[in-house]
Amino acid sequence: MLIILPKPARALCAGALLGLVPGMAWAAEPAPAPAIAEADPAPAAEPPAEPAALPDEPASAPEQRRRRFLAGGGRLLLTGGVSTFEGAGGGGIVPWALIGSYGTRNELGVSAFGTGVLTQDFTLAAYGGAVSYKNRIELSVARQNFNLRNVGLVLGLGNRYTISQTIIGAKVRLVGDAVLDQDRLLPQISAGIQYKINDDRGVVGGALPVNRQGVDFYLAATKIILSQSVLLNATVRLTKANQFGILGFGGLNGARNEYQPQFEGSVAYLITRKLAIGGEYRTKSNRLEGALGGTSFREENAYDFFVAYAPIRNVSFTLAYARLGQIALTRQNGVYGSLQLSF
Q1: 8 Å CB contact between 116 and 340
Q2: Over its length of 343 residues, how does the chain's per-residue pLDDT go in tens digits?
Q3: What's the CA gap between 301 and 218, in Å, rounded?
Q4: Considering all CA atoms of the chain, what is the largest pairwise distance in Å, rounded to the nearest integer?
Q5: Structural contact between residues 87 and 166, judged by C-beta atoms closer than 8 angstroms
């Protein structure tokens, strides 16, 4: 699809916008136009000179190939978003319809991330990566380690007890293009699935008799408004997860084991080419309240406010204030930090 923008200013918007994601600086990096040498016509009386032999490869070619690789694929900067703590391309805690990394419809893209969340009582470390194919399909994997720190002692599990889970995800773009469809109201829409495997047997499946494996299904719609430097996203998720799956799936002893729809939303605004701010909101089901009596294990909705910075095309940093709601016994607020490498 070819878009002809009516004003040069809009062309500049297309280059500047996509810092909308935590860490985004959406700007095209067009290859320089080849120089065209104009030779004087040879005199008619003289035979044309034979062309000089072309060198096999200039001495700087390996360096040029390295720079082309580091420049990434052909898409605008960070139009795949950053990696969520569950591995999918999007914001920090909400997956978007955008396909991660920089690969275009003719390319393969890759990304890797590391994320840390520190609250009053817990820490969460997550890491993983994703591969995209033809800007249509995204495959991701993430590993999460949730450390209970001193809460483990209170629960009789020992100091710094850790619950770990692996998340294997897939996402496919169904319709629309968030960047190119500026003349249409239709957003980019993608469907995704996440298979979560919780390793813990002491709490999950032990003290809390719940399932240790579950599958989330989600549908995401993302709209980028280039003229306003704004990204909007809405995601609907069907899930059985407790605290994103860290506390297992479904209710106690098989109760409340049905899928429940949850809403997730994101908004981001580009301040400069490399600096963006935004926020996210994610609802969660509440299946385990009262597991230890009273309001223990109540589950509340989560949100964050982020600042993102992209010093170069392939690297983005995200820093956020996150409110995760009550986890186990008390409400948890803290700092969220993430680093992503993308090609």
Answers
A1: no
A2: 434 444 444 443 344 334 444 434 344 444 444 444 444 444 444 544 444 433 434 445 544 444 443 445 556 665 667 899 999 999 899 999 999 876 677 788 899 999 999 998 899 999 999 999 988 999 999 999 999 988 777 777 877 899 999 999 999 999 999 888 889 999 999 999 999 999 999 889 888 899 999 999 999 999 999 889 899 999 999 999 999 999 999 998 888 899 999 999 999 998 887 888 999 999 998 998 887 777 788 899 999 999 988 888 789 899 999 999 888 778 899 999 999 998 8
A3: 17
A4: 104
A5: no
